[in-house]
Structures are given as structure tokens and as C-alpha cells.
Amino acid sequence: MLDIHQFSYGNDNYGVLLHCRNSGETAMVDAGDAEAGEQALARTGWSLSQIWITHHHGDHTAGLIALKAAHNAQVIGPATGKSQVTGLDQQVGDGEHFTFASREVRVLTTPGHTLDMTNFYLPSEKLVFTGDTLFAMGCGRLFEGDAPMMWASLNKLMALPDDTTIYCSHEYTAANATFALSVDPKNQMLVDRAQQVTALRAAGEPTVPTIMSLERATNPFLRANDPGIRSHLNMPDDTDAAVFAEIRRRKDNF
Ligand code: ZN
Ligand code: FE
Q: Is the pTM of this model over 0.90?
């Protein structure tokens, strides 16, 4: 078992520290804020060995150079993209893997939000870091890719087991829940989850991580084949990809 410490920074970002007690190794997922990263390391007492970068946006990379220099950490991140991340020691592509604390970390590229989006899956821990691709009840905005690309990326994540724990990079869940209810209003699990999210946020608690089974049941962006959503959108015979694109379009204008 790895120890996990999630910390917030910026408006609504989450960073994560992963730590192995046996080897003493620690990985940080994303490096958007060096000061917040340092505080998390100080709080836990863990010393940083690796940094995993999901994509090139500043809220995921702005602290990379400082954290790398301060801790001599190995930085692993996207192999391709139109804006290359500066400071990577190792570039990884889809289907490749690397090792952290004697565990396999599988790389899943999930383009759509950006072309370089890179997700990290640890099968032994049933743990995935989805960056700005899959959020709790949401998915990333399409800045560089298009809807078919994002749909293919989400399908890659949906192939992971139901009991996979999902860490995403933003606390967008309350707004996502409000939108989800607008396209899937009769989904009782969604109605219940939206209430839980409201209570958690009112108490200042995070709604992340989430779990794949819960996303399958309540995240409209994973439910393009759901009869209720299809009938609500009046798209009974369209492809899943077309239904997904319509849900994404509605969210952009919500
Ligand atoms: Zn982003
Ligand atoms: Fe982001």
C-alpha cells in the first residue's frame, strides 16, 4: 500500500503525493505550485523522488523547475504535444510504463483537453491519475483536441476496473453535478450524489478522489449510451460519440 496525500493549490487544483514506506520514495503528481508542493512535503515529512506531469498547462507545471531543482527529482511527462513541457527527464507515451517504488506505472495518453494529456495508472494500487481528462461527474474542456478524440480517451479510462480510485486535478465537482442533473435528471444515484457533494463542499471537504463505478453511474460524459440521457437529448439512434459531443457542447454553454 502506498500512502497518499492530496493537497490543494490555486483556485481549485489538487496535487497528490504518493509515498512508499518501504523504499522511502515519493512521487508528486503535477507541479503547478512549488510553494504548495513544498508545504505538502514538509507536512508529510516525505522527500521527493519523482514528479509526474499530466499536461503542459501552467496550473500543472509552473512549479516544476523549482521543485526539481530543490529535490533533484526525476521528472516524467508527456512525449508529444504542441507545447513541450520544459524540464522533463523522461518522456513517456501511450502504453509505455515506468517504475515507482517497485510498482508498475502504466501510461495512458488521453488527448482532448490538450494533445499531450498523459494519465498514470498503477494496477497494483488500483489507482489512476486522470489530470484534466476525467473529473468527478465531468470531463475536461476541449482546448486542443475534438470531441471524437476525447470520447476515445474517456473510453480508454472506462476500460479500467470498477474499483479503480480516480484522482483528478481539479475540484469542479459541485458545478459538474449541477450540469449533470440538467441532462440526466431522473438518475437517482446522481441526485443522491449531488446532495452528498453539496454537503461535502459546505463542510470544506474535497470530493476527490472518486471511484470508477460511481463515475460510470453518475458522470454524464461516460453515459452516452444511457437510454435516459439519450431520450432527454432526443438522440435515441445517434452514435455514442455523437451523444458525447452533444453533452460536451451543452456543458460549454451551460
Ligand atoms: Zn489543463
Ligand atoms: Fe488544469
A: yes
